[in-house]
Amino acid sequence: MTVPPQLTPGGRRPRSSALPVRPVPVRRSGETVPEPRRHPSDVLPAPAPQGDGAPAKPRPAVTELRLSAYAGLRRTRIPVGPLTLLAGPSGSGRSTVLDAYAALAALGAGTSLDKVFPDPVACVPETARPDAQQRRGFRIGCTVDGPVGPVRLDLAVQAEPSLRIAGERLTWQGVTLLETAQRDPGLRTVQATWHTAGAAPVTRGPLPDTQLTTALLPLRVSGRTVGEQRVLAAAEQVVVALRSVFACDPRPAAMRAPVPVSSGRLLSGCDNLADVLLRTRTECAIRHGMLVSAVREAALRPVRDVLAELRPDGTVEGLLDRGEGRRRTPLGRLGDGELRHLALALVLLTGPGVLEVDQATEVPDAYQCLTVLADTLDRDLDAGQLRGLVDLAGRAVSRGHIRLIGAVRDPAAAAGAAVEELTVVDLTPDGAGQG
To answer: Which helix (H) or strand (E) holds 310?
Structure first.
């Protein structure tokens, strides 16, 4: 696949040496590994043709989550599609999977380890036994597909006796592009090794053990050689995919009262729904019309429009126009299911410009894809509301700019939705991680 210029650092291609240089494989800590099947100094793919006939470049997106040992899940692989439903009863690990994804997203955005895992011991499997140094931890990882192809990120975190990243590995086509390991438990650093493929096949250096090394690479690697360009392209693909995440859990109790006029960006709990409706209704008539249609299809009573009006005290209130001369219904009078359905529909029909999300501003929007994490997606929704919401999500993800991972108890409740991109993952003990 072609690496778009926005994801590939600049730098001239190094001149080929007259003398052949035998590449030195990166060795894992404590063991010897054979030489990789393909070395990153191989020629980069030829640029894709430009113009109207050029194929669309894939947006970086997570296609698999791996919870090797995390909380109550072990050896669990979660396939992730454009629209993914995590199904299973209470205690099956649905929220655990979403928490792991959110943690990887925060690390990809450069958040420090202690803020991502405020209670790291809770992430350690109960059956984990400490080693001779009384160390315990957990392992998570993901695969990100995009312009450079599938890239694997695997992370080992030490939770006890101190919180630190014990090891990290970035892999592309069987080649370890980046690897970190602890060399001295007394130092708060890890030894990082990444491919250079220039005069020196690899480069080594100490990096902090409190942040994701993959997210720090653009600050340390110049991209002067083909190998460094390959490492940077893979790292940036992972970072762009991970940090474009919006965790959403609408709270009906906080959505009923009028709210002050503010930024017009939707919060994670959708507390400021009325303020966002005031903005979106005037910005895009087509998107607002789709929202009204979704609400109308799921409502038991007629709905003509979804409004937001300014009150004399300076606050804004959300309303439903019932039509036919009826009085408008304030959102505060709606049921919990109606409010959650309205809020989730608005999330799926908007984007990073409306949602309160930290997106990679240095990368064009055409190369980014927002992932919405919706825990207990089916809470307070009846079968018709859930089916309509899944159908709306299917239409939204087909445009390629947004993805959805939702947790539900019974995937059969969404049966009948005309969705081709739907992936259902059964997390019950007999089928954990099976799509």
So the answer is: strand 305-310
State phi, psi for 239 to the nearest 5 degrees.
-65, -45
pLDDT at 15 over 70: no
E strands in 322-369: 329-330
* Per-position DSSP letters for 22-37, written without gaps between them: PPPPPPPTTS--PPPS
In this structure, which long-range contacts are made by residues 201-207, counting pairs with CB atoms below 8 Å and at least 24 apart in sequence? 201/21, 201/23, 201/24, 201/227, 202/24, 202/26, 207/180
Q: Given strand 370-374, what is the order of strands in its sheet?
A: 245-248, 370-374, 402-408, 83-87, 422-426
Q: How far is CA 67 from CA 27, 104, 106, 314, in A?
A: 24, 11, 16, 48
SS3 372: strand
Give per-residue burial for 2-18: e unless 16+ CB within 10 Å, then b: bbbeebbbeeeebeeee
Give Cα 410 distance to the centre of its chain. Answer: 23
According to DSSP, the residues that pair with 61 across neighbouring strands are: 145
Provide the pLDDT for residue 2: 41
Q: What letter represents residue 400's amino acid? A: G
CA-CA-CA-CA torsion sign (34, 171, 214, 113):
negative
SS3 239: helix
Give the CA count within 13 Å in the CB-facing half-sphere of 167: 14
What are the beta bridge partners of residue 202?
Answer: 195
Q: Is the pLDDT of residue 391 over 50?
A: yes
d(C-alpha 114, C-alpha 209), whole Å? 11
| Cα(93)–Cα(427) distance, integer angstroms | 7
Mean pLDDT of 362-384: 84
Which residue in the block uniquely carries the two structure tokens 């990073």?
A: 352
DSSP 314: S
Residue 424 CB: number of other CB atoms within 10 A?
17
User: Any bridge partners for residue 170, and if so which?
Assistant: 153, 178
Are 102 and 116 contacting, i.e. CB atoms less than 8 angstroms apart? no
Give residue 21's identity as a one-letter amino acid code: V
**If you write DSSP's letter for every residue of 290-304 in order, what string do you get?**
HHHHHHHHH-SS---
pLDDT at 49: 44
Write the single-letter amino acid at 94. Answer: R
Q: What average pLDDT does range 338-362 have in this prediction?
A: 81
CA nearest 141: which of 112, 111, 170, 180? 170
